Amino acid sequence: MSYWEFLQTYGVRILDGTAVTGIQFLFASAVAIAVALIAGLGKLSSNLLIRSIAITYIEIFRGTSLLVQLYWIFFVLPLFGITLPKFAAGFLSVGMNVGAYGAELVRGAIQSVPKGQWEAALALNMSPAQRMRRVILPQAFLLMLPPWGNLIIELLKGTALVSLISVADLMFQSKQINASTYLSAQSFGTALIVYYILARFLVTPFMRWLERVMARRLGRG
Amino acid sequence: MSFNWRWDFTFEILPRLLWATLNTLMAAGVGYAIAVVLGLVLALAQRTGFRPLTQLAREFVEFIRSTPLVLQIFFVFYVGPQFGIRLSPWVSGMVAIGLHYSAYLSEVYRGGLESVPKGQWEACTALNMTSRQTYFRVIIPQALPPSLAGMGNYLVGILKDTPMLSVIGVAELMHTANAIGSESYRFLEPYTLVGIIFLAISLPTAGLIRLFEIWVRRKLGMR
Amino acid sequence: MEDMSEYPLELSGDNVPMVRFMNVTKSYGELVVLDKLDLDIAAGEMVTVIGPSGSGKTTVLRMLMTLETINGGVICVDGQPLTHMPKGGVLVPADARHLRKIRASIGMCFQHFNLFPHMTALQNCMEGPVQVLGLSKQAARERSEELLDLVGMIDKKDQHPSRLSGGQQQRVAIARALAMRPKVMLFDEVTSALDPEVIGEVTNVIRKLVSEHNLTMLMVTHQMGFARDISDRICFFFGGRIEEQGPPDELFANPQRDRTRQFLSAVKEAV
To answer: How far apart are CA A146 and CA A90, in angstroms?
Structure first.
C-alpha cells in the first residue's frame, strides 16, 4: 500500500481526528486562559485565603503530571459525585494543567510592570480595580504574550493525552489505524506531521500576529 | 456517593507503588542523561558555520518541540518492528523521552551561550585564546548559571512526563497504578497516591534546584 | 502607639493652610527618613524642597500623595486629615475610602513621567477624568485638549509616549495631572531624567502655571536657579528635618546655617 493509498483510505479519519484535536485545543485554551488569569491574580491578592487557594492549585497542578490529573479527573472525580463526559474531562484537565503554568506567567507579567505605573494610577486616584484593569493588565498582557506562545504549543501537544481516555482526537485515530493496519510509520508519522503543521504554521503565526497587533495597539509598533 | 478511602487497601498497594517509583526515577534519570548530552550536540551543531548541519539541527529541534511526546513514544516503539527492529519498551521509551528533552535542553544551552556578551568573545580574541580555551575558560562558566534554571525545570519536567511511558508498558508508577486499578476496580487510592508521590518528589526537587543554582552563582562569584 | 487625641479632628479658623504636616515621622526599620516634620503650605503658595540625596525630600511628596505610609503624626489637606479620619472623637488611620476622597485634591508629576504607554497623550489625560471623576468623554476631551494646548503638546495629542521625547512626555504628564483639577500639585524632580536641552520646555510650563494659576505647589528639584525664580519659599532638608527655610532670595543670598552654605556652594561648583 503506497502512502497515497494510505491517505485515500484513512485521510478522512485523520481529518476527523484533527477536527476533534482542534476543538479540544480551543476549549482547553479558553479554560487555561481563564484559570491562569484567576489564579495569577489570586496569588497576588492581599487576602490570605484567596492567595492560599491560588497557590495550592498552582503547586498541585504544576507538581504532578497532566496524565495523572487527567486520570484523576476522569476516574476518581466520579467517586465524589462529579461525573464528566470524557470530552469535557479531556479539555478541562488540559486547560487546568496549562492554566497553572499560565498563572505564573500572569503573576510574573503583572509584577514586571514598572512600579511607576502603579504610582501614576494611584496619583490619578484610581481604585485598585481600575488600576489593574485600565493600567496594569493591558501592559502585562503584552509582556506575557511571547511566553504564552510557547505555553499554547505545550497545550496543543497536551491535548494528545485525551486519546488515553478515548476521546477520538488525532492521536486516538492514528492509534486505531495503527492497530488495524500495522502501518505504524504511516499512521503515527502522518499524525506527527499534522501536529507539526498545526503548531508551526497555524498556532505560532497566530501568536506572532497577536503580538504584533497588541504591540501596535499599545503604541510600540 | 461512593467515596470511601480505604486505609487497609492503601497500605496494601503502597509498597508496590513505591517500588514502581524507583522505576520512574530511573526512567527520568536515564532519559535526562541522554537529553543533557544530546542537547549539547544539538546546540553545538547549530553554532557550527556549516549551514546544512545548522539548518538540519534547527528543523529537528522545531519538529520535536511541536509534536506530542506521547505520539513520539508510540512512533519509536511501533515503527521499529515494521522494519524488523524490535526495541523493548524501556529502550524505546528512553530513546523517545531523551530525544524529546534534548530538543528543549539544546534551546536552554543556546540561550545560555547567547547571553554571554559579545565583548567576552572579543576579549578572548584580543588575548589570542584558542577557541577551546575561549569556550572552557570564559564562555561556558558564564553561560552555565543562566542555563541552570532551565536545566532544572526540565529535570522536573522529564520526571512528570514519565507517566506517558505507561502507554507502551514501561512498568513505572502510572502503569502500576493502572494495573492496580484494573485488578481491584479501585481508582481512588492508586491515582491519588500517584499524585501525592509526584508532589512529594517534584516540589522538594524544585526547591533543591533553586538552592543549587544559588550555590553555583556564589561559587562562580556571580550573584 | 502615638496618642492621637492631641491632634484636632479638622483644622478650622481664618488661616487654614492647604497642606499641613504635623509631627510626621517616617522610618524604614531603624533608618529614620523624616523626623517629626512640621510644615505648613498656604493656599496658592509655591514651595520648593532642596537638599542632599537621602535627606528625605522626595519622601515628603510621596507621603502627601499617599504612596508611602507614615509612622507617626498627621498630614492634613485643605483642613481635612489625609492620613487619618475621625472616628469616635479621635483620629484613626484612614481607610481606603477616606484616602480616595481626600487624595482627589492632590496631583503629582514624577521624575520618570510614568505615562501609560498603551494610551496616547490625549488618552492619558482623559483617563482620570473619565474613569475616576466620571466625566463624559466629550467633557474630558475638551478639558484635556485645553490642557495639552497649555503645555504646548496639542499637535502631538494622538502620539503614544514611546514616540515622544522626555521633555514632551513630562509636559503631557503635567497636563494629565492638571486634568484632575487638583488643589495641590506635586513635582518630584520632574527635570532630573531629562536631557539638558529640553529642561527649559518643562520648567517654562511650570513657570506659566505659577504666574497664571492659583495652584498650591510643592516641588523637589535640583535646578537651583529655577527654584529661586519661581518659589515663594525654599525648604532646605537635611537628615530628615528642615534645616533652614525662607524666601528664596534670603536663603540663597544669605544662608544662616553652615549645612545650607556647604550644600549651596557644593551645588554651585557642580554647575
So the answer is: 26
C134: left (phi over 0), alpha (psi -120 to 50) or beta: left
Contact residues, chain A, for C116 at CB < 8 Å: 117, 120-121, 135, 139
Contact C110/A120, CB-based, under 8 Å?
yes
**Is B62 touching A (CB cutoff 8 A)?**
yes
Nearest to C112 among A116, A135, A138 (CB): A116
**Contact state of A119 with C103 under an 8 Å Cβ cutoff:** no
Taking only the tens place, the pLDDT of each residue in B167-190 is: 999 999 999 999 999 999 898 999
Minimum-distance CB partner of A219 among C110, C113, C117: C117
Tell how strand C84-87 and strand C31-41 pair up.
unpaired
Domain range annotation of chain B: 7-219
Q: What is the pLDDT of residue C1?
A: 64
Per-residue 3-state assignment (H helix, E strand, C coil) for C205-257: HHHHHHHHCCCEEEEECCCHHHHHHHCCEEEEEECCEEEEEECHHHHHHCCCC
**Residues C184/C160, Cβ–Cβ less than 8 Å:** no
Q: For residues A171 and A158, is the Cβ–Cβ distance under 8 A?
A: no
Instruction: Name the helix (H) or strand (E) containing C159.
Output: none
* Contact between chains at A79 and B202 (C-beta distance less than 8 A): no
Distance from CA of A138 to the nearest CA of B (A): 28
**Any chain A CB within 8 A of the CB of C116?**
yes
Nearest to A103, CA basis, from A158, A142, A147, A138 = A147
Pair C190, C110: CB distance under 8 Å: yes
Q: Which fold has domain B7-219?
A: MetI-like fold (1.10.3720)
| Separation of alpha carbons A149 and A209, rounded Å | 11
> How much is the pLDDT for B1?
39
**CATH says A3-217 is which class?**
mainly alpha
Task: Tell me the whole-structure pTM to 2 decimals.
Answer: 0.86
Local structure of C51: helix, strand or coil? coil
B52: left (phi over 0), alpha (psi -120 to 50) or beta: alpha
- What are the pLDDT digits (tens) for C184-197? 999 999 999 999 99
How far is it, in rounded angstroms, from Cα B74 to Cα A192? 11
Q: How far apart are CA B130 and CA B142, in angstroms?
A: 17
CA distance C8 to C80: 10
In this predicted structure, what is the pLDDT of residue A158? Answer: 97
Q: For C56-70, what is each residue's pLDDT tens digit?
A: 899 999 999 999 999
Question: Which chain B residues are Cβ-neighbours of A104 within 8 angstroms?
Answer: none
With a CB cutoff of 8 Å and minimum separation 6, the contacts of C243 are C51, C236, C237, C257, C259, C260
Residues C59, C57: Cα–Cα separation, whole Å:
5
Mean pLDDT of the C34-55 span: 92
